[in-house]
Design a protein that fits this description.
Blueprint (H helix, E strand, L loop, with lengths): L2 E20 L2 E20 L5 E2 L5 H14 L5 E8 L9 H16 L6 H9 L12 E4 L7 E5 L5 E6 L6 H5 L4 H7 L1 H17 L2 H15 L8 H10 L4 E4 L6 E5 L7 H15 L3 E6 L6 E5 L7
Parallel strand pairs: 3-4
Antiparallel strand pairs: 1-2, 1-11, 2-4, 2-5, 5-6, 7-9, 7-10, 8-9
Helix pairs in contact: 1-2, 2-3, 6-7
């Protein structure tokens, strides 16, 4: 068959529960949410070009990496995104795009889109999140590339906002002062990491939110967010448990018990008050997600692409 079609979906994140360094090696613990990048990849086994949105440079990079790794010089096709994540906010938009496109292409070719394979592709392009793994996973996202599943996702609701702008992941992780920042904060990050591991193992959102708050406070030194302290105070006043932030992005979110404890009217009221108090450029409510990808091959009946 000249054509093959795959469809894959990868979740984004509400920043990271914890990010810092251990013995000088950067790592992060992702916070997967119910927002996604979803890609349909139609492969043509008799061409070499790619038709995809101009801004999806990293998706193009992963397709070229995939061609080389599989030894398929005559491979091209079309990429269409049915779901996309906001870019530059720290929601793992690049990692989710790369992962969804690679998984869709692999499954179309009859290859296994396993998480480790997808992580390898992503990390060869840029420092990446661990959203391709199910559950909550820590990953050495800059060097080493080791990863470890910490446990299943803990149910939570996030009231997320930012005040505009964008941060490039590659540029952030190349900052010369970053290693010194991580060194100074290593003790606090160690405490946050231990709390996060306990929270995940015990399904204790309060501990996890405390870990997120510690790490977010450490991050202010290198990625300042002007409304951090008044927002944290407001979240706690409203029954939230703490905050989580995008360490290399603009997003900041209050952590609340899952929506079963908060009805729609309460959520709407929180959104309205947050908009009035903090006048963000972006405001939304997310729920935690189990992480990992979903990928399917689509059977086609004629060679029309």
């Amino acid at each position: 068959m000249d054509f093959a079609v795959g469809l894959a979906r990868c979740p984004g994140t509400c920043g990271e529960w914890v990010q810092g360094a251990r013995d000088g090696v950067p790592f992060l613990i992702d916070c997967p949410i119910d927002r996604f990048s979803e890609a349909r990849v139609t492969l043509n086994l008799n061409t070499t070009g790619w038709d995809l949105p101009l801004n999806k440079v990293k998706a193009l990079q992963v397709l070229e990496l995939l061609k080389k790794s599989l030894g398929l010089p005559r491979l091209g096709g079309k990429v269409e995104f049915s779901l996309q994540l906001p870019e530059g906010k720290g929601m793992a938009s690049s990692t989710a795009d790369i992962t969804a496109v690679a998984a869709a292409a692999l499954v179309a070719l009859g290859e296994e889109p396993d998480s480790e394979r997808l992580a390898d592709f992503a990390l060869r392009i840029e420092p990446s999140d661990s959203v391709m793994f199910p559950g909550i996973t820590e990953i050495e996202h800059v060097q080493g590339h080791n990863h470890r599943l910490l446990g299943p996702t803990v149910p939570a609701l996030f009231l997320a906002l930012d005040w505009g702008g964008a941060i490039d992941t590659k540029v952030f992780n190349a900052r010369p002062e970053l290693s010194e920042h991580y060194r100074c904060q290593e003790s606090a990050i160690k405490s946050a990491y231990q709390l996060a591991c306990e929270g995940i193992k015990q399904g204790d959102l309060e501990k996890l939110a405390r870990a997120g708050t510690i790490s977010a406070q450490c991050n202010l030194e290198i990625n300042h967010k002007s409304f951090f302290h008044p927002f944290l105070a407001w979240v706690l006043q409203k029954g939230g448990l703490g905050v989580v932030t995008a360490h290399s992005g603009t997003l900041l979110a209050g952590v609340f018990p899952p929506s079963g404890a908060l009805n729609q009217d309460v959520c709407r009221s929180l959104l309205n008050e947050a908009q009035q108090r903090f006048t963000p450029a972006y405001l939304d409510i997310f729920h935690s997600h189990s992480g990992g990808i979903v990928a399917n091959k689509i059977e086609i009946t004629e060679n029309t692409g």
